[in-house]
Write a structure and sequence with these properties.
The chain is built from five helices and eight strands; from the N terminus they run αβαββαβαββββα. Bound molecules: S-adenosylmethionine (SAM).
């Protein structure tokens, strides 16, 4: 939810379930049937939107909002935890950056989660315009713009454009490639080699990937 929504109190833990329109742009970029972990699952709204394209093998949240979602602080998850689930990716709409906090909690979550698996996060588009993004850009191979969605699903769009950001702590790129939500190259093409390397060798080594502009 927008940092510019200053006149409104933010919900506890930034609990804003993802509307369908926020999830759809990601679908064509996901490997069909990819097993994933939803670490900030809330009431499971995003999981429902991705069903049919991606397979949620485990869902967790600090404050689970539905049956089948387990209680876990995503920052405490370990590689062994994720290995045990069979997840190949992490996909979530996490809490958005708190104003004046240097990108917290997103920067910490992006670094921690993307060291465990390639991680898609639905975030404000202007995250990339902040100084703290300089440290994330080398591990962000692509961004898929979403635009302004109606978080309340009442037809009134939010104040921020949103985008899906892919983070992968094993890659080093010059900067993210912006991909279309409707056509053209997909993240499966841009990041496929790195994803195959994750699958093939669950070992902690830095993987250097070149991304054509
Ligand atoms: C914006 S809501 C999104 C819910 C869900 N991902 C969706 O897309 O519908 C963010 C969620 O992150 C959870 N959360 C915040 N910090 C967390 C943490 N450190 N670990 C796990 N969940 C967290 C909140 O409880 C909240 O449910």
């Amino acid at each position: 939810m927008s940092k510019r929504a200053g006149q409104f109190a933010r919900r506890a833990r930034d609990f804003y379930p993802t509307p369908r329109a926020g999830a759809l742009p990601l679908l064509r970029h996901l490997p069909r049937g990819v097993p994933y972990w939803e670490p900030c699952a809330g009431d499971g709204a995003l999981i429902a939107h991705l069903a049919g394209r991606a397979d949620c093998v485990v869902a967790t949240d600090l404050a689970p909002g539905a049956e089948g979602i387990h209680r876990l602080d995503a920052m405490r998850a370990t590689a062994a935890d994720v290995d045990a689930t069979g997840a190949e990716m992490i996909i979530t709409n996490p809490p958005w950056p708190a104003p004046g906090q240097g990108g917290a909690p997103v920067v910490g979550l992006a670094r921690h989660l993307s060291a465990l698996r390639p991680t898609w996060m639905l975030l404000p588009w202007d995250l990339a315009a902040n100084g703290y993004f300089d440290g994330l850009a080398p591990i962000c191979p692509c961004i898929v713009p979403v635009g302004r969605v109606s978080w309340m699903e009442n037809g009134t769009p939010g104040k921020d454009n949103a985008a899906w950001f892919l983070f992968d702590a094993r890659v080093r790129v010059a900067g993210p490639v912006v991909l279309s939500r409707t056509g053209g190259r997909t993240a499966r093409a841009v990041h496929g080699r790195a994803l195959r390397a994750w699958r093939a060798a669950r070992v902690g080594r830095t993987y250097t990937m070149e991304v054509a502009a």
